[in-house]
Amino acid sequence: MSRSTTFDPAAKPPEILKIIYKSYQKASTDALASDADIVDFSKDQEYIGHPKVKVERKLDGAVLGKVFALFSGSSREDDDAETKDLIIYKHGDLSGNPKHKTNVHLHHIVPYDTPSMDLEGDMTSHSNSQDLSFFNFGPLSSLTLPAINPSIHKPLSISQFLNRKLRWMTLGGQYNWTKKAYPLGVPPDFPEDIAALIRGIFPHIRPEAAIVNVYSPGDTLSIHRDVSESSDAGLVSISLGCEAIFIVGLEDPSTKVTRHTVIRLRSGDAVYMTGPSRFAWHGVPQILADTCPPWLSAWPAGGNDSEAASQDDSRFEPWRGWMVNKRVNLNVRQLTD
After folding, report:
1. Which residue of 13, 44, 133, 149 is most buried, as measured by CB atoms within 10 A?
2. Residue 285 main-chain phi, psi, to 5 deg
3. Between residues 177 and 152, the one the model is more confident about
4. Which is nearest to 266 in space by CA: 32, 56, 41, 61?
């Protein structure tokens, strides 16, 4: 039986974690940069000989290169960049498918749910359905997302939807935020390309559900535990875009003593919560503005260098810079043992 069944999904986090969370929520950029309590893995040398942060193992760069190439659809022969070995640290205190919903679905009709809706006036014609994207619609497009109940909510423009209203989407198992549970029955298929990427790096997890959070500076994620899955398999969290302050802590059930750590997560960082930390309290008190790496800041348009831009599909050019002040976080979990 999974240990998750022993946890209350509605339980409140320890008071000390709430206090720490609030302190980092209000911390300035300078204060965060000088805070010695924040674990920042961009400073690798600082963790050599660290009393609590140890190198757990390394993932072979050659193997990772093949996994990344499979995910991106590219050939290793076409890529001159060598994939470096990935260092995995362990902290001593913590040892668009129509069936994939978003927060906007709660109150609005999202076009891919309504195939009868006439979108031809605004949509570029593509022979491959995988090329379809909401970014195909320009920021000034006449496309709107109608309200389910017009007497309560107004329709959303495509600009409102992508720039601010889209906060999360679920892949595979569709988590019910109100009931704090997954629906009974067979969940929608998990996207195979993402599943293959996760399995290639974290072979001990079977990807069956994911929540993709879309943050802007000023957004937060309250302290919580992920205890609705019937599995003890680890959680995988991958960050892209702007940096974030991540707080994670464990409370000893007998002594009520809480151990915690604070990590500065940068674009490309992955957190693997396994063992005791699988059911740890965690949250994001702050997203750091203007910290998206330059090579990613133009997304979904082409790269910042002229060669990359010339090779990329120009249809996303009106959205150039959308990623500058966004953090996209992919959280993957296994539903059952």
Report:
1. 13
2. -80, -15
3. 152
4. 41
